[in-house]
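Dear colleague,

Thank you for sharing your sequence with our group. We've completed the structure prediction you requested, and as agreed, I am returning the results in plain text so they can be pasted directly into your records. Please verify that the sequence below matches your submission; if there's any discrepancy, let me know and we will rerun it promptly.
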Amino acid sequence: MNTNFTRTEKSWLRYLLTAITLVFIGLFIALPMFLVFTEAFSKGWAFYRQTLSEPDARSAIFLTILTATIAVPLNVIFGVAAAWAIARFNFRGKSFLITLIDLPFSVSPVVAGLMYLLLFGNQTALGIWLDAHDLKIIFAVPGIVLATTFVTFPFVARELIPLMQSQGADEEQAALVLGASGLQTLWHVTLPNIKWGLLYGVILTNARAMGEFGAVSVISGHIRGVTNTIPLHVEILYNEFNIAGAFVCASVLALLAVVTLVLKSFIEWRQYRSHQQSLRRSSDPLKSRTADPQIGARAAMNPG
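Please find the predicted structure tokens below.
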């Protein structure tokens, strides 16, 4: 009897928590997302297309894509290098490096923008030198890229560090023993093993880069048609009481969020499936032979 009561209690608790979660998601995520698209198309498709065809909107979209196109590859390079160093080597200052990687998570984006503003501003020696050589960082595209790269830096590294630590270095060490160079080992052993985690980090980095507001707002100068990204353009339209136009541009970011969510779910599914296949291979003595680290090492030696 006590067992049945406990099961009933757990069942009701499970349903209650599920209902609370669904209500929360519906009110604070799904409903606002639905309203964004509803308001965006409230004046018809012609108005939607016209708003996105305006020069300022096209400039904001182009700058947003350009910023993400530059910031994401930089974060991939730095993230893979940092994750490899932290997961594979022990050195002095390792904890300090991890702290630096986490710094953008703890620093407000507005503060990050102010840091670059103080670093490259005309009131500093570096800013004066840059101005004398006609090199524009503040209130220009390079400053926006720098601020975005800083804000999005942890995503790739933080996704790869635990993944590479859990995988170990057996295959990489076997490849090096068999004569593979460091570059061959990275390209044919390390990257294939972390491809899904890397892609997951890239998707998160891209979504954050395109939606970044605080740091870019400080360092861009809000020069219309020149240094405005989509989030800044949405703010300008809203402040000018062009509510429908603001929702049109906001729907672009909302659509990006939906696509990111779909890709994120797909990658999580592939990661789970790959993990299950690895567990099945490790439990099968015959299949486990094909999972020998030297297989990956030989692939590094003979990529063809």
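Summary note from our side: The first helix runs from residue 2 to 40.

Kind regards,
the structure core
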